[in-house]
Amino acid sequence: MFGMSTKILLQSSIIHGVVHQAIAASIRFQALYRAIRYFHDPCSIQFTSSSCVLEGIFYYHTNLFCSVVCLSLFLDCLASTYINKFYKSVPKKAAYTYIVLQILIPFLVLDWVFSDATYTGYVPICNYPPKNSGDNFFYVNTTRIYILWIIAVASIVHFYMSFKHEKRIVHEKCDTNTRFNAFENLLSARAVCLIICIQAICLGGTSAIPSIFNIYRGPIPVAWFHGTIAFATGLTFANFFVPIIITFETNRIIKRRRSRIQALFRQTNAFDYHHDLKNRMESSYKKTYPKTT
Q1: Which pLDDT score, from 0 to 100, does residue 180 have?
Q2: How close are the terminal C-alpha atoms of the chain, in Å?
Q3: Transmembrane region positions (predicted)?
Q4: Pseudo-torsion of CA 95, 97, 98, 100, nearest 10°?
Q5: DSSP for 241-293?
């Protein structure tokens, strides 16, 4: 199935996705509560920027973290393919290095975004950027869209190359382990490619809306503009799909892995190959149906 480093990165993605969803839900609940409480006093509905500093930092950090995960997964997939022997010897160190970068990069970006922010004004909701940081916010948002799409295209190309490589190995190599490793790399590349593309579609599609609205801000009604900034958050959809994709791809990989092991088992009579494949198949079975007491 997934390698150790890939598994850790996927787990970190799910955990931060849950944290981000909890923060987003809390922010929206506060906005709904104030809208109901101050229904007859609309001027009191808005939040002071100073009261949203902490929530805003956590919201944007977890938001950017989930985007940087896509880059980490892509680099992890490349390393698993092209420096496989070395990478398998340091899977946890590699994964933890990626996670440290996923934590540091958003903080560095936010430090620049909020470098000239003033917290004396009001915002409609706490995930809205403070005064004077709007331009930096939209610049980062637009840049992230382009980077995500570049990573998505690169992951598609990598999956295609893995597909071609696996087909070539089947025709050129007789070694069973080489064939099986190429097949596992292909399945992993497909799963990572699908996760990255879903993230790019959800984030890129909805993130483009605030950026477009900001360009044509003049003729757009104020209520529409602020409502879009507050609720056009593609990360909500991306975080919803990630666990589903991981579950689907894991089950698919297990089934394909077992069928390929059985096929390779029938293709060779060598005892060592049979013994190795049998161990792989038993390992796959135990991961799929763990023993319970």
Answers
A1: 67
A2: 24
A3: 57-83, 95-114, 145-163, 191-216, 222-248
A4: 120
A5: HHHHHHHHHHHHHHHHHHHHHHHHHHH---HHHHHHHHHHHHHHHHHHS----
Single-letter amino acid code for the residue at 171: H
Nearest Cα neighbor of 250 from 201, 197, 166, 184 is: 184
Q: Residue 211 sits in a domain of what CATH number?
A: 1.20.1070
How far is residue 270's CA from residue 134's CA, in Å, rounded to a whole number?
Answer: 66
The predicted model scores a pTM of 0.75
Residue 293 lies in a domain: no
- Rounded CA separation 27/43 (Å): 19
Closest CA to 238 of 191, 187, 186, 194: 194
In which domain, by residue range, is 226 found?
A: 4-288
Q: Which residues contact 118 (CB under 8 A, 6 or more apart)?
A: 49, 130, 131, 132
Provide the domain count of the chain: 1
Does 226 fall in a domain?
A: yes
Q: What is the pLDDT of residues 30-53, one digit of tens each?
A: 888 888 888 888 778 888 888 888
The tens digit of pLDDT for each residue in 69-117 reads 888 989 988 888 888 778 778 888 888 999 999 999 999 999 898 888 8
